Amino acid sequence: MKLLEDKILQEGIILSGDILKVDNFLNHQVDPNLMMEMGKDFYEHFKDKKVTKVLTLEVSGIAMALTTALEFGAPMVFAKKIESKTLVDDMWEAEVHSFTKNKTYTIRVSKKYLTSDDKVLIIDDFLAKGQALSGIKELCDQAGAEVVGIGIAIEKKFQGGGEAFRKLGIDLYSQATIKEFRNGKVVFE
């Protein structure tokens, strides 16, 4: 998606440890026009998948998952990382290790909101090593929900996370695929 790639080149900052900082438009401050275009782009790619739920992980995937769900006319559900006194229902749970925060979380989705009747499109902001995505997929597996596709805003292909999901036969679509960081610059595939 050229619009996203251009935004990354103009405003993204490469930090040490192969981390791309895009918090000024994607995952702290959000560019709503960009999010709307991303939602439309995900819809165009997955429109034949009969999506019944769009699932993401709290917090960074919510904006793009919401605009995608709006395009599908389907509910958006986010897996919660933060414990809450309101999480009293039966929950699907999985462990997720965050690459950027170097922290392990228990993620949860209510069994009311993710069932075996669902055809799930997973949406997330980044794909690096695939640990967050594995946890989200595990929630779907526990529920017996079918993962019909995975939409990623930015895939860091050099970290290998996407290959495991592609080998499973899952339609994984990344809007911006980074081949490498070279001399302080982003190189797209």
What does this structure look like?
With 189 residues, the chain is an alpha/beta fold. The chain is built from five helices and ten strands. It has a six-stranded mixed sheet, sandwiched between helices. A hairpin with a 2-residue loop joins strand 9 and strand 10. Helix 2 packs across helix 3. The longest helix is centred in the N-terminal third of the chain and has 15 residues. The chain is globular.
Main β-sheet: number of strands, strand sense, barrel status? 6 strands, mixed
Structural class by SSE content: alpha/beta
Q: What string, H for helix and E for strand, traces the elements in order?
A: HEEHEHEEEEHEHEE
* Rg over C-alpha atoms, rounded to the nearest angstrom: 16 Å
Strand order of the largest sheet: 4-3-7-8-9-10
Strand fraction band? 25-35%
The multimeric state of the shown protein is: single chain
Label this structure with key terms.
35% strand; 30% helix; globular; alpha/beta; 189 residues; six-stranded mixed sheet
SSE blueprint and pairings:
Elements: H1 2-11, E1 13-15, E2 19-21, H2 32-46, E3 53-57, H3 62-72, E4 76-79, E5 91-98, E6 103-110, E7 119-127, H4 131-143, E8 146-156, H5 161-167, E9 172-182, E10 185-188
Parallel strand pairs: 3-4, 3-7, 7-8, 8-9
Antiparallel strand pairs: 1-2, 5-6, 9-10
Helix pairs in contact: 2-3
